[in-house]
């Protein structure tokens, strides 16, 4: 097996320079304003779906983009948390925020187990192990009684947030989701720009060298994996509340593939890439649902085109063209 | 009927036979994956879809052209191998210098496209494929009843698996292949056309998947989903066995199939996940896999 270090999946640390460039600060502010205004212009449920998937993709990107670890089993954390949250809120009657936190904690615990197993191998083996472990979660979800098999957990009550805010109001629900997703993104942004994030990038570029510098790389990879799983769980739990549904779709391997595509399309290792990718994929899917075109064929085609033509993703290519960051060596 | 381990022997041997058949498919598919990975450093996510394609080619040959099982056994692998050749030449070839993960992502996209297209065309329900007349009926072995076709599947896959092992480990062409796996530049300097060898290796690996698809057609129904259900288990098999050895891939595949069959008798609820549990245990005990080498 060759080493993956020299060619690295990811190209440029856009982030540091990005936030120093005044143009991008303006761009982020504009994006924030657009997000606040969005429910008045677009169908709120649609924007909430985009936001949940954006957080999911950002969580996934933390692993692949900054740690160089390709997980093909993130659906387990997304869908697993959706089941836990839905069950906690509907059957146990817990408050919404506690339900979401339980889902997040459940995914973190699952991430700890899966991560500990998967980081024992590198590269494509890592991808295959995460895929297989996630399939185990899928089969378990198919058989356990509390998930209700093919039906899923339906009619999950949205409840009230902190006992005050009624989430059945679409606007209240929207701003709650926005707050959750922004909080998740801030956590990722902080993690990436902390010393921890720097060590993670060092491991991505050259693991042997990081080891020889005295870093216990396994621990860093495991922490990154758990953090990524927990945030994917946060996204999944929130999605269960928004759609009042937790189903097998969320734990299937196709979902793991979808989040890979979102991140790849937007740009692996860029901060905004996954958000752009999630918005594009969700829009594309809701558009295709109205046509006769088979969705998987189009999604698969996007994969092929991305891998062959623009591996840096949309945001990655744009920032390279606009020279926001120095062009990375190819 | 006798009792073995407190289980009626008829049920036990029946499930073990099913397990052995599943194991034959695991072996054929993981062998193809191992051969491709050895040469191309690509994990072929499209393997399951190409297995499905093999079964569909056989079904289409029969239902559209009236071409029977025997010819399908020859033609379907050729068609699948030919498609593999085109995919390698036009797409995979561009990715060899990049991170291996891009090969995985590309083949994943191809798998989605293939499966999606067949699903769109034929729906999710399976199409029946009749057992060829020659292989109908069965043998009474005394302790169990062995349907002829199932016996044929096990025999055919064993012959193909060990034939592949022999070709790679014991012939001159296999020696070139192994040398090119170790050091392609040096082998090319000796005047061997390595790029053609790479293309043919990929074509051969996916042709094995197509062959497995034809074998599977009369047992499982021909459905667009048959590949993706199987391939994730095969990935677990590959992790358990390690991709270092051809013989290891074959033995792991057969062994895990048997174990899965045994689980179906003893504790049926766990039969879907037993392979994944074994994968987790192997990762804890011997991360490189049972037959793998730690690098």
Automatic annotation (TrEMBL), chain A:
Its signal peptide is: none
Membrane topology reported for the UniProt record: Multi-pass membrane protein
What's the name of the protein? Branched-chain amino acid ABC transporter permease
- Top-level taxon in the UniProt lineage: Bacteria
* Keyword Mitochondrion among record annotations: no
Gene Ontology MF term list: branched-chain amino acid transmembrane transporter activity
As for subcellular location, the record says: Cell membrane
InterPro entries tied to this protein: ABC_transp_permease (IPR001851), LivM-like (IPR043428)
Q: In this record, what's one Pfam family?
A: BPD_transp_2
TrEMBL record, chain B:
Domain of life per record: Bacteria
What is the species listed in this Swiss-Prot or TrEMBL entry?
Azospirillum griseum
This entry's Gene Ontology molecular function terms read: transmembrane transporter activity
Q: What family is this?
A: Belongs to the binding-protein-dependent transport system permease family. LivHM subfamily.
Localization of this protein: Cell membrane
Q: What are the leading ranks of the lineage?
A: Bacteria, Pseudomonadati, Pseudomonadota, Alphaproteobacteria, Rhodospirillales
Q: Which UniProt keywords apply?
A: Amino-acid transport, Cell membrane, Membrane, Transmembrane, Transmembrane helix, Transport
Q: Mainly resides where?
A: membrane
Pfam families, per database record: BPD_transp_2 (PF02653)
* Matches recorded under InterPro entries: ABC_transp_permease (IPR001851), BCAA_transport_permease (IPR052157)
Q: What is this protein called?
A: Branched-chain amino acid ABC transporter permease
Q: Which GO terms describe its biological process?
A: amino acid transport
Tell me a GO cellular component.
plasma membrane
Regarding the membrane, this protein is recorded as:
Multi-pass membrane protein
Task: List membrane-spanning regions.
Answer: 12-35, 42-62, 68-87, 99-118, 149-168, 200-220, 232-259, 265-285
